[in-house]
Target: 3-hydroxypropionyl-coenzyme A dehydratase
Amino acid sequence: MTDYSSYQHLLIEKSDGIITLTMNRPETLNSTNFRLHNELSRIWLDIGADPEVRVAVVTGAGEAFSAGGDFEMIEQAIDNPAIVAQNTKEAGDIVYNILNLDKPVISAINGVAVGAGLAVALMADISIAAEDARITDGHIRLGAKYYLLTCDFLDGKEAERIGLVSMAVPRDELMETAMRVARRLADGPQPAIRFTKRALNQWLRQAGHTSFDYSLLAEALGFFGDDVKEAWPRCASDGGPNTRRRKTRDVGTFSCQIEVFSADGSPLLTRLGVEPRRRIQSELADGSIVEDAIGEARVSVEGVETTTIVVFVGEGAPTLLGAYTLEGALLMVDPIRQQLAPTHALRMANLIEFIDSEVPQH
Model:
């Protein structure tokens, strides 16, 4: 029996010949960190060696399929030959190991699909997308050059229209459809299905060695150019020099920017009867330090009332809803639907462990 216990970011379920792989980093839209990237490169070898598996289905946890490489992995790869070489090898393995696996792979594209995640989605033998899935950077299979050159997003319906995915279905029918197709393949004549996949993929193997290998090299070289060095700070901070340091996640649909504390103009807070309690220092994106007064206020967010910390900033400054406030109201930003959504409270033990890991050791 094949042992899948080493996989941390892939949830693996097997049932009657079908293995379901779920990329499981929903808090980051299933972005590929070093671990997940590596797991996606080698899981197909284990599936190929598993006599109990006849079909594989791959999807993402939560609202996204995969948002591509996470910021930490990208940042560490810049000007780092060893990391770029490893990532390039694994990127090739993701594509070729799916291509060479003789068992059919079905992708259930349940949301945003970008980069390495999209490679998995489109290299599947049958790709089924939710109609409202968001896709960009489809650099593996057939598709229009327009989308490759502009990086525009296309939804599942458009992806089906241009032949980028096999079919698009309503989101609530996605997994049912994928599993129905998987069941049909798992119950079908295995030698015929596997030989058919090998024959159909032969031209992709040939194209891979003439085009895909070159694209891998070109992508690797990009990590050593001036463009990525100049663009990365803007991409990572997503704010100007006078913007307080924010938690930012750009998923292509919109950029969610949240202050640590909620902020509003001093005159408005004063008129509301909020009094400053003490002063704190905040670090701006350019590294400079500013000092602001803070106080406490009772607020209502989406009908949920909570007491929160507010920052007294200058008159005319924008009103910003803080992550601290959202946490107190047990709300989070849903970057796919662009709205607030209920979430769970943090366990204090986990919070303390996180804080301890962030405190410099002297």
